[in-house]
Amino acid sequence: MTHLRSKLMNVPFLDLKAHHAVCRAELVNAINAVIDVSAFAGGPFVNRFEEDFACFCEVRNAVGVSSGSDALWLALTALGIGPGDEVITVPMTFIATVEAISRTGARPVFVDIEPVTYTMDPVGLERVVTPRTKAIIPVHLFGQMPDMAPILDFARARGIAVVEDAAQAHGARYNGHRARTLGSAGCFSFYPGKNLGAFGEAGAVVTHDVRLADRIRAIRDHGQVRKYHHAEIGWNCRMDGIQAAVLQVKLRYLEERNEWRRKHAAHYARALAGIAGLVLPICRPSRTHVSHIFAIRVPDRKSFMRHLESRGIGCGIHYPVPVHLQDAYACLGHCRGAFPVAEQCATEFVSLPMYPELTSCQIEAVVQAVISALHPSPTYA
Ligand SMILES: *Cc1c(COP(=O)(O)O)cnc(C)c1O
């Protein structure tokens, strides 16, 4: 009976409707407040969200911007990175990390990820660093921070900036430290599907460095330091008032929602432990994982995903092609085999449904589908 029910249960990959149902009235009030005072581009709602988000991140300054991609570009630009410079990052990330480097005119340089946490392998840094290296961008993939200590030590010893791509890691910690307070700056995305998501596009840069924050504030607003007085060439990367108001409401729920995600990840891990042919995500003891994405690895992904989909289970791939093998980056001249861990993961990763509002029944339905996909038996046929 249980089996029959779980077989028929639809589990979407992501359910933003369920996510907003709880606080919908609050969100509508917040949007109305913005309409009441017509503070649509930057302004008081953005200022208030920045204060709250800085407080959440335990950092002195937060600058609200138009997207996570712009947050990365702004941080690199405000650090003075441009043509002739090199920036080290990983090939297993969303392409925006690498595009931000290219947008400054600098050259992206890759190191492979480690096979356990799927984050930057600090061992690779020594091999690729040059006198032109100006920054390192570790990516907190899936909600877990990499081994930051050796990365920070390496950078500090050479006067290189560390810009954290924390787009998937709102609330993550490393040895108790929040994402981003360790390096020069941390960059967040509030794309709707992220752990903290807006009602459209938004992002933020956080930093302890007041001068860096001020420069980012100027660049996001056409280099403007006083009305119509422009100290440098900037761009329009402001955050919308409506996004700020929505984010301020949703931020109050974030810690609790991250806790729910961790509970669901633990549920998956318990129920799927010891299954042959399946690699589960691992959270290192020194880290607080915020389970943005629950990615498992399976050998025959195509048939695995077909099986899950036939049972109404939504799943995704993050990411099927590592950045160094994307056509857009053919110009860098990397061949297949250049970053073997990233390449292997790209062929095996499958992301299971993960969002705070998942129910135990839904998780069980996913678990049964995963087991039956890997070990077809009459019981589960
Ligand atoms: C989402 C994401 C970005 C880009 O953020 P946008 O707000 O969509 O521009 C950058 N890096 C990573 C790792 C991401 O997941």
Salient structural properties:
381 residues; alpha/beta; Aspartate Aminotransferase, domain 1; 3-stranded antiparallel sheet; binds pyridoxal-5'-phosphate
Give a verbal description of the structure:
The chain is of the alpha/beta class and 381 residues long. It has two domains: 19-251, Aspartate Aminotransferase, domain 2 (3-Layer(aba) Sandwich), CATH 3.40.640; 255-374, Aspartate Aminotransferase, domain 1 (Alpha-Beta Complex), CATH 3.90.1150. The chain is built from 13 helices and 14 strands. Helix 6 (96-104) links the parallel strand 2 and strand 3 (107-110). The radius of gyration is 21 Å and the shape is globular. The mean pLDDT is 95. Pyridoxal-5'-phosphate binds next to helix 5 and helix 6.
Strand adjacency order, main sheet: 1-9-8-5-4-2-3
Radius of gyration: 21 Å
Query: Into how many domains do the coordinates divide?
Result: 2
CATH superfamily of the largest domain: Type I PLP-dependent aspartate aminotransferase-like (Major domain)
**Number of helical regions:** 13
**What composes the largest sheet?**
7 strands, mixed
Shape: globular
Give the class-level CATH name of the largest domain. Answer: Alpha Beta
Give the overall pLDDT as a whole number.
95
Quick overview of this protein structure:
This protein is of the alpha/beta class and 381 residues long. It contains 13 helices and 14 strands. The chain has helices spanning 2-8, 16-21, 24-37, 44-57, 68-78, 96-104, 125-128, 148-158, 210-219, 241-272, 301-310, 340-348, 360-374, and strands spanning 61-65, 86-89, 107-110, 133-136, 161-165, 173-174, 177-178, 185-189, 203-207, 224-226, 229-230, 287-288, 294-297, 349-352.
